[in-house]
Amino acid sequence: MAELRPVPGDGIRWHWTTPRAQEILRRRSVAEILLLYRDLYQVPQQALADLLGYSRTYISRLETGSRTVTDIGTLRHIATCLGLPPHSLGVADDADGDQPLVIQLAESVLALAEIARQAGQATTAVGELWPLVARLEARVTDGHTDRDILRLLARARVSLGVALGHVLPEERLATAARWTGKGLALARRLDDPSLHAHALRHHGNELRKAHLLGSAVHRLGQARDLARTPLERAEAVILLARAAGALGHRDLFDQAAEQARQLLGEAPPSALFSAFTVHEVRLRGLMTTDRVEQAVELLDRAPRPALTTSSQWQIISAITAGEALLRRGDQGAATEHLQSAIEGAALHRLPHQLQRVVRASRGLPAVQEQAGAALDLIKAQIAA
Q: What tens digit of pLDDT does each residue of 107-123 get?
């Protein structure tokens, strides 16, 4: 049964980030964790016994609670085999007693995860961030509630939610919003305006992706008002324009889009804010607020991607352009843009972008079929 063994970092352990799994992990109950694992992966007791190297009778006793595990080596072994961070079973690393080292390691993981996500490797980011969150959550549970650890935990929760928001399909995006929401709740308590605004921006964006548009607009408006630098304001405003456009709120969209345009000369470009991303947001917002002709006119004035423009934004832009071209009646150019988006979304494992392509390509059955096939493959990989 070696094929059942999870390999750390080999994929999205999103199953363990759901509310149900998190509640079970919080209790650190080996019995509940084993039962949850078998339920998630649909394996019988014997398969789990083979995976862990124990007898089926022993697994049965563990699951019923008639046998308990307190040995640290055994707990670490179970965690490793199930693809869980040891901290989720209460097993601390030797470095955990060294506060500066813990902070240094956490900062490094956060930085590397952000680089991976911006490079289109959000699955790698999830694989790095979830063990960090588990480690920090365990420290807080054990009474380490100093400000530095809490700030790191807030940032890690938000980063994990954002990474999950890249790699989960639309029907699962509430999980991403839940994590950014947990980060926001902690950031709000820490009286750190910059961290608070950062968490508001990302939580608002994940709410938008989860189709909770009213709440998204509210959070992003708060982020804009709390912004202390031109870049913070620019990133909040561009996300507010996206949410207002999706909501169909024409006046708010126009206001936010104009603010974003004005900030182009004031805020430095970033992965989220640039002439390229402002153009894409304006194009999509014009279409969602029933101004297709204006969108088509804007389509031909698209700037080139900046050095800071991520692969995700280029895929998003290709889908939006494909939609606009299809509405203009140019099926050939629309097909080219949408197929490019499919290739990029499949490469970077972005299921909700493929779901956008499926919706956008109505009237192009071959493109729709291609997007659907790529989506099915990614969903199968996520579920495995």
A: 999 999 999 998 888 88
